[in-house]
Design a protein that fits this description.
It contains 10 helices and 7 strands. The protein has 251 residues and is an alpha/beta fold.
Length: 251
């Protein structure tokens, strides 16, 4: 008899103590407890150095798993969570809950017709400065010209995936082998992942979700301009890579 939960919620955190103190983990857990489907919550600590490791470790509940991992960036943390996840579907969400967990109600109706149901913030970014609005527009335009032109927002952290296909594709992400240990690490792994999904025939549905920048755990080593350039370079790299190799490796 199959005992796997319907949903695995996977969160990768790095130096998120300020966000954690707003009881975001409790909010996610309390919401899941009220649902009729079976679920599990997995939080991977990506080698935090700000005390958030000890803070999260104190949260002990049924259907909750906390993993202390070596620092490998957000994609690396998610990969570790995916390896442990037992659900039929896997949801990525951010610890700051800029997109609240209850927005999954907008994504679930598209299961199982689509293999990936992704949250979209649209074009406007609440709480973003004009500079960040402009930089986001430039990145989005470049990415749409090169890859996934029919998708408005590839970078929203709220995404639901069919577990089997996610476990087949995620280990092949370039960022997992090209990670450089440099503190907070922002990547465009979402673009590569969604591109791989489509190459393997996985249908993707983009759904508008509520989003407001709630991240208060901004560290000094976050360099927005550098992040944007790094992400643009990653998109270019995915564009010129031989994607047929991904298809054969993940088959």
């Amino acid at each position: 008899m199959k005992n796997n939960p319907f949903l695995s919620v996977v969160i990768s955190q790095y130096n998120e103590l300020l966000n954690l103190k707003y009881n975001v983990v409790e909010e996610v857990y309390d919401y899941l407890q009220k649902q009729s489907y079976t679920w599990e919550l997995i939080i991977v600590d990506d080698g935090s150095t700000d005390g958030s490791t000890d803070y999260t470790a104190k949260f002990a509940r049924p259907n909750f798993q906390y993993i202390k991992a070596e620092h490998k960036g957000k994609a690396g943390g998610l990969h570790r969570g995916i390896q442990e996840a037992k659900g039929d579907w896997i949801l990525f969400t951010d610890i700051d809950q800029s997109t609240p967990i209850n927005q999954i109600e907008k994504l679930l109706p598209y299961c199982p017709d689509f293999k990936a149901i992704i949250g979209s913030r649209g074009r406007k970014r609440d709480n973003f400065s004009l500079f960040r609005q402009f930089a986001s527009y430039v990145f989005r335009t470049l990415r749409k010209v090169l890859l996934l032109g029919h998708i408005e927002d590839t970078q929203c952290g709220f995404k639901l995936f069919e577990s089997e296909m996610l476990k087949r594709t995620f280990p092949h992400l370039d960022v997992l082998t090209d990670f450089k240990d440099s503190g907070w690490n922002v990547t465009a792994f979402d673009v590569e992942l969604l591109y791989m999904f489509e190459k393997l025939g996985g249908r993707i549905m983009e759904v508008s979700v509520t989003w407001r920048n709630e991240d208060i755990s901004v560290t000094k080593d976050r360099k927005f301009v550098k992040e944007s350039l790094d992400m643009a370079r990653q998109v270019l790299k995915v564009t010129i890579n031989n994607c047929l190799l991904y298809t054969s490796d993940a088959a």
